[in-house]
Fold:
Amino acid sequence: MFYFIYIFLLSLLVYSFYGFPITVYNSETLEVIYNGIFIAILSLIFTLLLIAFHYIRLRTSYKNNKRLKRKRTYTINRQGIRIQSKNYDTLFEWDEIRAVADYKHFFSIKTSSHQVILVPKRFFVFENELHSFRQLVKEHVRAKKVK
Structure:
C-alpha cells in the first residue's frame, strides 16, 4: 500500500508538470476521471512490478546464501532468546528486544531498526510451549511493544 501511494503521488507530480495523457475537450470532469483512473492503473502496475522485483531478489539471495539455510537452535527462556548454529552463538536479552508481533504462522521479534528474528509457530511442538513463550514475552517486553 505504501509503494502504491508513493508511486501514485509521484505519477501525479510528473503528469502535473508534463500534462495529462488523456485530453477530453468537452468536459473537464471526464478528463480528471479518465486521468485519475489511468494514473491509478499505472501506479498499480508499477507497484506490482516493484513488489515482484523485491520478492525475486530476496528469494534469489536466500537460495544463494548457505548461512541462512544452516540448522539453528532457538532457546527461549527467562534470560532471553539464544540462537545457536555451527559457527555462532548469539543471545538476545529481553531488554534488547524492541517489539514483538504475533502473526498467523510466526512471531516477528524486532531487535533493532534493521534486524528481525522470525520464529515460526511450527517450532513450538506443544500448545503449552507456545503459551509459555507468550507469557515470557508479556513478562519481559513492555506492553506497547507487544502486538
